[in-house]
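Researcher: Re-running this chain for the archive, since the previous output was lost when a drive failed. Same request as before.
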Amino acid sequence: MANYQNLLVAIDPNQDDQPALRRAVYIVQRNGGRIKAFLPIYDLSYDMTTLLSPEERKAMRKGVISQRVAWIKQQAHYYLESGIDIEIKVVWHNRFYEAIIQEVISGEHDLLLKMAHQHSLLESIIFTPLDWHLLRKCPCPVWMVKDQIWPEKGSAVVAVNLSNKESYHNELNLKLVRETQELANRIVKEPLIHLVSAYPAAPLNIATDLPDFDPNVYNRALRGQHLVAMKELRQKFCISEEQTHVQEGLPEKVIPEICEEINAGVVVLGILGRTGLSAAFLGNTAEYVIDRLKCDLLAIKPDGFVCPIDVDE
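Model: Regenerated structure tokens:
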């Protein structure tokens, strides 16, 4: 269920404006719930010095943490004064993504929000290694927020995989659309949700290798298969045909183009969270799409996802 009530905001320590906190407040004002502003910090110099005793190092850490807590309170003072429930927590941890995910798990948070940095020239989003760790490994949905005002009449785009090769895609498609509808109905008046799917064209050299093969017939058949699957999916959620898009091409090209064409505010997609050799050799289709987006992103894991991060004692 997308009734997000326990939001964790990863604070960006390098800037005074916090778009992720602003988006979290926007959601809570319309959907209810509470917010925790969370910041992991670490300075190796405090641990390397031999001139300080362990007690002195601990006291200095506490001093730095207190300064950061005060800084976050200053960033959030307008929200706090207006009655928004925001808890502030700063921890000392040398692996930021682990600290954030451990806080998600221990605090039972159902949505993580973090700012995604924007490229000034192309207006696209740049994802840091920290972002990729969170997208791949965080057990709850991750909302990457672009530092930009929500577009007027901005819509939500759900990227679905209509290939029938793996059955888990069908279950994930249903989860993506269901959660997007539920969230949109709570926070947006008259929400507009679009479904987007891409399918590959026949390889150009296949006609040479197989003379009897007709790529046009193959492409028409594949498009027909995707159109039937899209119709079945949209009818389950009462989404009009005008709000569905099935196009030939690679997902990383088709989906960002559709998002820009319809002025999307957020794209919702499923991410399998592959890590290690699986990610290195197979990659994640979602990640190729993410690299080219120019709007907010909401990444949702499939049911049964197992987080690889353990909570520290």
